[in-house]
Write a structure and sequence with these properties.
This protein is mainly α and 171 residues long. It has eight helices and no strands. It has helices at 12-25, 30-37, 41-48, 56-66, 70-77, 87-95, 101-124, 142-145. The longest helix is centred in the middle third of the chain and has 24 residues, at 101-124.
C-alpha cells in the first residue's frame, strides 16, 4: 500500500451504504433524493456505491434531502469525530424524521451539555481519602454526623418532639 501523506483514508463505501439505508428508510428513490439534494442522479449513485467521496457541502445537501443530521454524515465520512454518549440516543435523535435539523442540533447540544455537567459533578463528588466531601465533612467525620434514633434521615429533624402549637382563634 502507498503512503497517504498522513491523510486518513475514508471508507466511502460505508458512507454510501449508510446513505442508501437512510434513503430506503425515508422511502425515497435515488432520483427523488438527488432532486431534493440538488445533485445529479449519476453522482448520487456513485456516492452510494462508494466510487466518489462527497464534499462537506454535498453531504450537507444529502442530509437535508434525507432530513437527517448533517453531523451524522460528517462523522460517517470522517470529517467530524463522533461525540461521546449513548450511540443509540444520538442515532435516534439524528435519524428521527419528525424533527427539524435545528431541533436535532439543539437536542444534541442539550444532551452533550447534560453529559458534561454529569461528568463534572461526578468528578467533583469523588472524594479522596481524608479530603472534605462536597458537603464539607470528611469521610471519617461521617460517623459523628450519622443521624441518631428519632431523626428523620432526609431532614435531620427530630420526630419525637411535638411541633409548634397552634392557638385556637375561634374564641
Amino acid at each position: 500500500m502507498g503512503d497517504t501523506g498522513g491523510v486518513a483514508r475514508i471508507d466511502v463505501s460505508g458512507l454510501g451504504e449508510y446513505i442508501r439505508e437512510q434513503r430506503d428508510q425515508a422511502q425515497m428513490s435515488l432520483r427523488q433524493l438527488a432532486k431534493a439534494a440538488d445533485i445529479s442522479n449519476p453522482y448520487l449513485s456513485q456516492v452510494e456505491r462508494g466510487l466518489r467521496r462527497p464534499s462537506a457541502e454535498i453531504l450537507n445537501r444529502i442530509a437535508a434531502g434525507l432530513r437527517i443530521s448533517a453531523e451524522t454524515l460528517y462523522i460517517r465520512a470522517g470529517i467530524l469525530e463522533e461525540r461521546e454518549g449513548d450511540v443509540t440516543v444520538v442515532a435516534a435523535l439524528t435519524s428521527d424524521p419528525t424533527l427539524t435539523e435545528r431541533q436535532r442540533r439543539t437536542l444534541l447540544e442539550i444532551y452533550a451539555a447534560f453529559q458534561a455537567e454529569n461528568r463534572a459533578s461526578a468528578t467533583a463528588q469523588t472524594p479522596t481519602p481524608g479530603s472534605p466531601e462536597p458537603g464539607g465533612t470528611r469521610a471519617t467525620d461521617q460517623v459523628a454526623a450519622a443521624p441518631s434514633a428519632g431523626d428523620e434521615p432526609a431532614t435531620g429533624r427530630r420526630t419525637d418532639r411535638p411541633g409548634p402549637r397552634r392557638e385556637d382563634s375561634t374564641a
